[in-house]
## 1
Amino acid sequence: MSTQYLAVTFTIVLAVATSVPLGRYIYDVFSGQHTWLDPIFRPIERLVLRASGVDAAVAQDWKRYSASLLLSNVVMWLIGFAILELQGHLPLNPDHIGGMEPTQAFNTISSFVTNTNLQHYAGETSLSYFSQMFVITFLQFVTAATGVAACVAVIRGLAGDRLTALGNFYVDATRAAVRLFLPLALVVGVFLLWQGAPMTFKSALHATTVEGAPQTIARGVVAAEVAIKQLGTNGGGYFNANSAHPFENPTPLTNLVETWAILVIPMAMVWALGDFTRRRTLAVVVFTVMLAIYVPMVAIAVGQEAHGSPAIAAMGVSQTAGSMEGKEVRFGSGLSALWAVSTTVTSNGSVNAAQDSLTPLTGLMAMIGMWLNNIFGGVGVGFLNMMIVIIVTVFIAGMMIGRTPEFLGKKVEGREMKLASLALLWHPLAILIGTAVACAVWTSTAHPDAALGWLHNHGPHGFSEMLYEFSSSAANNGSGFEGLGNNTPFWNISTGLVMLLSRYIPIVAPLALAGSLAAKPAAPETAGSLRADTPTFGFTLWAVIIILGLLMFLPVAVLGPLAEYLALH
Amino acid sequence: MGKELRHAVAFTALTMLLFGGAYHGVLWVIGRVAFPAQAEGSVIRRADGTVVGSALVAQRFVERGYVHSRPSAVEYDAASTGPSNNGSANPEQIALERKRLQAVMAEDDVKAAQVPSELITASGSGIDPDLPLAGVDVQVSRIAAARHVPAARIRSLIAAHADAPTWGFLGCARVNVLELNLALNEAFGPPPTSH
């Protein structure tokens, strides 16, 4: 068991250590510096921009930047929806899979355009190879790049002095996709291939087992998709079992690389912030605050899973590897607990074990990761969420000590606070109202088990299944308590709408906020300024994240995972 | 607006070709050239070329002469993978665990304390190819009896097939059940069928 703690620590240290140089690389790419990968990837970047007819020299203000972002996403949504509907008539479909049911396709395309990757379908039976490639994997690159682009634009706004423009959306998105995600995905993809992830256009394998029974083994272009689903905080698996499937995650080494790939870019974005604003100490403060929430969550989760299931302990069965329901032998419970927390704090949403079968408090940690949604967070957007909380913390701290609230030398005023509040309040509203509506539908339906059949588990855990689904949608996470029978029009449409609103409100509001801050003059910091790059501010930020982020969720946490925990013990 | 729309459509089309098409093409070629066996799904074939399965995918074993795989929530259906999604307090889950435990205790004539939880819980994928060493150990005397082979010879074969954690600490010690059963057949011939 002690080796599991060592493996968990090693994984986190590896991600933190490599995020520092990667952050520098991200800064170099977006500030137009030379990097050693330029000879290969610069020409591809130029090709994409030139062929799209984009003039790289044209800088956009926050409105035009947002408009380009939204319009490109609308186009992707429409084309993707059409492919999902028509996949039965398109090539690369050796297993003869037909078009998707419309509400399921609405949910799926909304999920992938918003970088959520909530899956109300099973990949092996619902998607052709063509759809996996030209909808799923394509969007996993481009939506991740969209998040990074928005983040870079906001950071430019914060760092700038009387700026009117934030950059060019297409230039930023292309750079992120081609020069950040593509090289990393190629390296991770080759590594996964080496370790056993398939990469084939052949149809499913038809075997006759040792005992003579038929077995159909789905395969496909797996390595390519798994690489980017991890790196781009996408999380949508090739197969229904996601990274618990031995084809997606064959060995402890692939598990190490995939866990690393969940964390490294969200972590690196914090260091890139330090470079952009020329305030490394600020990056250190923010990174430390994030670690000071992430590490305790991991510790609780790993400890809880190591304890195993009380019911199994009562049978006298040994649980040396911890709670193993829904987990794979090659990973054990510790690395699955680490994954469960990492994938939810970062809005990735891939899993290497069944979230629904986690012990109650580990399930709570996963939900907390999504409720906060800013501890490293999704690529790009995680930092946007954190920035909102930083602005609020600046405001609160300014009120407490009676100074003008300011961040990076810019005054934070009414307009900024309104935008920050909008982004901040949307998230709990979407989760709590969504869950309340689902509960109301369930309780007002006669014989809901027969009529609706949503809940796989009952009591507090059934409540958690519904709560988790809306938390995952609002956090653009995509993991699920998958026992929930969610491929119904109610869940497809409600979570589809929540995903769309929860993607674009928290992107456009920070862009507007950055546009407004960018236009202000940066006042030189004096002894009287409220400084954000100090331990005192860090501690205040930590407290604000916990209190503001979690207090609203305390009642539902008690009704779901905490009640389940108390009933078990 | 017309120009904006043109940018959006062209950008979508190009990145779709690049990431949906070219990116897959590059990895597919690398797979074909450098890792052909893995790229096809680590297929295991018989001498006559027919497919037994994949080294990475569990299959069902019920005969007494074989090591049995971990329980599967999807009946080892590798075209529809997944877990049970049962919570640990779910009464159905606890009943299932109890039933599986009794089956192992009866079949292998062992006490509950000897049975590792992996043998009474379903895996995350439904096709977990591995068992921990303890999960194979409890099955040895049954296999030895069914095959009329000394248990010590089976144990040494298991030891030869055990995978330690990578670098001594990553992941868990384990045995690939399908590969072990094929090795048993190679060493001692197929078991006399008990059904």
## 2
Amino acid sequence: MNIIVVGLSHKTASVEIREKVAFSPNSIEQPLKALLMLEGIVEGVIVSTCNRVEIYATTRDIAGGIGRIRRFLADWHHLPFDLIEPHLYSYHGETAIRHVFRVASSLDSMVVGEPQILGQIKTSYGYAAEYGTSGVILNRFLHKAFSVAKRVRTETRIASSAVSVSFAAVELARKIFDSLSDKTVLLIGAGEMCELAARHFLTNGAKGVLVTNRTFAKAQRLAEEFAGEAIPFEELFDHLHKADIILTSTGAPHCIVAPKDLKPVIQRRRMKPMFFIDIAVPRDIDPAVNDLDAVYLYDLDDLQQVVAANLEGRRQEAEKAEAIIAEEIIQFHKWVATLEVTPTIVALRRQFDHLRHAELARTLVAWKDAPPDAEKRLEALTAALVNKILHHPTVALKKGGQGNRTDLYLDALRALFDLETPAPVDDDAADTEE
Amino acid sequence: MMIQISFYLTMALYGITTLLYLACLLRAAPCWAVAARRLLIAGFLTHCLATIHRYIAAGHLPITNMHESLSFFALSLVAAYLYFEFRFKVSTLGSFVMPVALLMIIGSSTFPQALRPLNPALESAWIYSHTILAFGAYAFFTIACGVAAMYLIQSHFLKKKQLGPLFKKLPSLDTLDEIGYRCLSFGFPLLTLAIITGAIWAAQAWGSYWSWDPKETWSLITWFVFAALLHGRLTTGWRGRRAAWLTVAGFLIMLFTFIGVNLWIPGLHSYN
């Protein structure tokens, strides 16, 4: 049995292509079922996120299976095959296993180490399990991928650092405020980066947003978008004390906040810390405010330095992660390779014959006054017995031919009769909590 | 003999724990902190055992000489620390508090350990309330000092934008502020009560509530420093680096009240 992967990702396709082949999670049942109708495809899982669309499947016919799934991706979405063909990648065997382990561990993500992808794969797998399109191999394969991802996460620090300016800002805020849940964010001025950062603070639990702008209408529009409150620019210093995190990006040619402006604000806040993030160039906040006891000021350069350092750290951690994955692939690949009918029957026979001969020899040695034809008779008897016992399972396995059930039988046989299976893949780390 | 075995076992356990906590600050593996905590609990139990043994052998609370009181200080400190570690889940605090506990117990071992009968003047039920309250206050103020040190380090990193591994390990400023405040709000009432019960006891034992004995004077100074700190906090929200520095200063004064006065200034409280 072989694991195959077909798909496209942010590395091979632009967003225009990706959105065309994306599957909606609300109607994933039909494509999953259709996938299994393809000739030679035994099991299937469809992973569809904004950065990648991938199909994991098992088949005995690697080339045919891959070809049909590639076509399927185009046909299902009524796209000309030529449109998506150059963006598709396909893997089988070890490279397929490696690919999925890397994706689940977030090594293949646009932002390496970002945590969402694992959850997305888990959800996709959940659909496949619900609609019965994943079987013994993909079940174990994806659980293994989850446990590998977990290992990567706990044994390396790949996910421990922020690699975008807004993430870095949130991370820093967490070192000042601990929980952001009762903190208010103030946006001074507009700007894409500023809005993005504000949004990050909100998704990370910030309580509310205040917005101010020289053009009040703009402030109102933004406030509406964030379900926050707009403040007239002239009243900034009357409201500043409410804000714990202040994001600024005005086009002002000079500083709009100086240390002397902040002293009364700090007093009013009972010296609770304030975190200023100045994304504007030229800067909006006088750098001297950083010397005030309760004020922490970071400008764009500072944040970018944090990001650069984190990126460097992640690169080093990614190497460790690759080593972990390499180790896990070997184990898993061995297991998949054992799920073949003929070698299993051969192994089963060999196991029985081995036992038969051992017992035969023991009996004959202990049998003092055995008649001359004893050996021959016992030989015939035991051989017939073994043949009879193995007859039915052998037929069932051969007749089972393709399909989900055969893999189940093969796996069970290998386990029950202790056929030289490599150390079984451990499922203990396959629990699904983060 | 048993007392000594458990005492030195405690010392060894505190030593290993301290090393583990310090290693945690430098190394990445979080499992070390778990190991440190388990060993610390073991150390705490043997320490309790040693103290109870000594209590039974001496027939009174073992806090009447330098050996005993330094050991008792370490015991109170570890108990208070364990509370904060479980309550706030900040194992980095151990790296700042455990060295103090270790120094105390090592210091304790350098003083004569012989059991001595209690000075008859001190025989009173007040010995329990007065001293336990005082040691409780000392323990909380020591932790407050550790937290203040962490606050100063962390805010230094944030101000100077040095965001290294140590920065990532230390908790947030708000958490430190919260723990520090909690220490003060536990420690201060304890100190106040310790001074009051001490005065009542003094009236019974020495015939006067307040005799400006050096220990009394210095406890009053300690009390004023922490009173100022708490007052500032409650009125104008005093916190941050200046408050942290004052906490450190308060701790040093407290340390002098506890040890320095006994060793260098003769007075009613010097029993050695």
## 3
Amino acid sequence: MKTVAIEKGTSLTELYRSLGGDYPKFFKMDIQCKLGYLLVEKLLQDAPDRFVPRKDVAVLVFSRSGSLADDKAFAATLDTFPSPAHFVYTLPNTVCGEIAIRNRFMGETRSYVLDSFDPEILGELVLEAFLDEESSSVIAIWADAPSEEEWEARAWLFTAQDLMPAHHCCHHGEGGCHHGEGHHEGGCCHGEGHGEGSCCHGEGHGEGQHEGCCHHKGE
Amino acid sequence: MIKTNIIGCGVVTPLGNTPGDVFGALQAGRTAVREHPAGTLGLKEPFCASLFEGPREDLFCRIAVEAGEKALAEAGGLTPGTALVLCSVKGEIGSLREGEDVSLAAAARKIAERLGIQGMPVVVSDACISGLSGIVQARRMLLAGLWDRVLVIGAEVQSRFIVAGFNSLKALSEQPCRPFDASRSGLNPGEAAAALVLSLEDSPWEVVHGAIRNDANHISGPSRTAEGSFNALSAVLPYMQGRPAFVGVHGTGTLYNDQMEAIALERAGLLDIPVSALKGYFGHTMGAAGILETIIGMQSLLQGRIPGNRGFAKAGTEPSVNISAQAMECSGNEFLKLLSGFGGINGALLIRHCV
């Protein structure tokens, strides 16, 4: 598991330049997309085969505000000429599209809106993302921008190995991740057909064994 | 084998408020899409859309709660281990200028409170596939074993914000939309709410599988090679028992969407399968579409008959698909549901009726 953050007060333009600055489309993006783009640049800057198209990385973007900052910018154009350049960023999942395009991620992308940053719920949703049989790693992003000036930005890269026994799945500084009531020993989530020592079985794992999330099949 | 099942359905639409009534309206050829004069929703020009009549105060939460209540009632009521997944693109955005908290998070909290659902609701906002994405999410929450039941509600109301936005992209049709037709020229915005209760409890209706894949191509246009839609379909097809009775397409009536779907069906070897496109009746109900169109698909499967594709006259995709303006017989116990949306996102869902 790897995690990165963008500290409050950071100049996003300077950060963009320091990370290579080779993607001018960055300047067209709304604040949420800029944060998402930069977080993934930081997360993957040393990754091998960086821009080879792949379907095995799921991208999950979480926020409270969704596209609210750009919603306000678009609404301000309604009385004159509604701006298509703003409208396309008024969808909370446009950030997923921008990350997918930049990184050639052709797997699952999801956008979630939650009432607050809750590591337990984030961890639960990350765990469930591994139920897609093609997703072998998950990039989870908290990119909340109620306005251009005030935002929170943090990202995590999880692989299936992070979810094996004795690991926590969603390190956040405060420890925990998903529901703790007896679910958590023995790692967590595997997708359908991924194998042993896991919890969170999808289908294809055999009959009549579902009594909750975390079966310790093979243990 | 763990089965995730549908144990309750609810719909609130301008064409009726039960799945049977709505399906009857479709069979009778009724549509809720019509031209609204300039001034409607504060728009300067007339536009074609499917809108609710009557007061608009609190409309988004009202229809979402009503659809949710109907689905819960069919499921036998609310149980303590029920989670809420809300699917919407823009929620209460129409109230933005009134200085209210128009976030989807705030709307979801209100809806959960009115329904008496504990715990933080999860909002899925994946553009036009939000409803389908929510069903996939609900299924996984059950597989993960953390919830007994998941109520998934999709809802959308229209506003000057959304209509002017689509208009700025030249995506709106001036006439009622014509999915897959040669003269199609855009979509009609629509309003609706629809809800499902998913559970591991027994039911004849199974959500067999679902997948979501990104085109990684363009933020506001589909892949010309249908990459994401085909990849989503490919993830789901191995779970079919036989040939599907029909494919419920997205079929927005825009040039690029319908063409892209025809290519996805060709690549998946499904060009012979009857195609059901419903947006000529409801318009594009955005966050509700995945759930509403799945519920109509269930009715179609039960009746062995898909409604005619309203607005269709002449094949307008290359290749052409198995589609008709008239109702078509269909046979089988499974159907596929497809949706695609901005952000390059595509979804495929497989629903089975086990008799």
